Give the backbone structure.
Amino acid sequence: MQLILLIMKNLSFYKSVLTVMLILLAGCVAFSQQEVKQEPGKMVEIKLNDGTSMIGLVVSENSESITIKSKTFGEVTLKKSDIKEINEIKTSQMKDGKYWFKNPNSTRYLFGQTGRNLKKGDGYYQNVLITTNIAHYGITDWFSIGGGFEGISTFAGEPIFFIMPKFGFEITDKFSAGAGYIYANAAVVIEDGDGFEGIGLGYGVVTYGTDDYHGTFSLGWGQAGGELTNNPFISFSGFARVGRRIGLVTENWMIPSDPYYWVFSYGIKIIGERSSFDIALVNSKDIATVFPIGLPIWFSYNFYF
């Protein structure tokens, strides 16, 4: 608690940021999708309003329906009013005759972000260690807003909360860059009126790779009490999808402290089309003296919408 109070001090600016972000979020909940006509012979995945999906080659399409040829169902004609979305399947997504659905985790690792942004209207909910709840939503294809709260402090009547605006841009098919800010504070500190304005971390991030294999470098400065850290926070992260539903993930931080203190993490992601589960070990020079392989203290469930 002493550490939290020591780090915590500056809020008028961030109150304004929070207000603006909430207005943007409220104003952008509804979004429209531009219809793209599918070419005959193209392989697609069609998701229906009832939650089912089909994979097949496009035979024909008109303004009211689309016909595909599926290995399972043969030639099927579907009304567009029954279709939620149509996604093109790339050749790289077919491996050993099986369809590898799009990885929903391409904008994040465990906690840290990639240079990619959520698409407009997409979002996710993340629960970490049962106690911490996070949500992130794409306002546009290049701007998203996230936030959350810690559960134990909330039930105790003194919630710790945070907001996380982020910009992300695709420079090429494999290269993305972004920037964001993570701001945290506690309601009890604000109510005490001691002038504490929270802690923050402003960062820039670059990512190279595909949805299934990518690495990220991030650099940022922490802020507390109106002052910046003398040295930047640095992180290196990576992800490799080694199976249709399994990925390997690592997220590593260099924390400013005479001059740096290293924290490592490495684990697996169990991947679904709309959800994933992270299990990771966390390690440092102090942890390694007792637990050489690290402590299994990161568990999170993620749902994508």
Summary: The CA atoms of residues 143 and 239 lie 23 Å apart.
